[in-house]
Amino acid sequence: MRLRGKTLGAPLAMAAMVGMTIAVPMPALAQTVEAAPRSMVQIATGRGRMITLNAPMSDIFVADPSIADVQVRSPTQLWVFGKKPGETTVYATTKSGKVIYSATVRIGNNFDSVQSMLGIAMPEAQITATPMNGLILLTGTVAAPEDAAEAERLVQAFVGTDTKVLSRLKTATPLQVNLQVRFAEVSRNFVKNIGVNLMTRDTTGGFQFGLSSGQRLPGTIGTPDLSNLPRLDASSRFGLPAGSLTLPFDPARGDFVLPGTGSTYQFNRPTTGNALNFAGKLLGLDVLSALDLGERIGQVTTLTNPNLTALSGETSTFLAGGEIPIPISQGLGAISVEYKQFGVSLAYTPTVLSDGRISLRVRPEVSQLNYQNGVQMGGTIVPGISTRRAETTVELGSGQSFVIAGLLQNTHDNSIDKTPGLGDVPVLGALFRSNAFQRGETELVIVVTPYLVKPVNANEVVLPTDGYKAPTDLERVFLGELGGGKTGLDRPKPRMAAPSGGEPSVGAASPLTPEPQQAPAPQPQQPLATPALPVQPAAKDTKRKKGSASAAPGFGFN
Question: Residue 39 contacts by C-beta under 8 Å, 6 or more apart in sequence?
Answer without folding.
Answer: 102, 103, 104
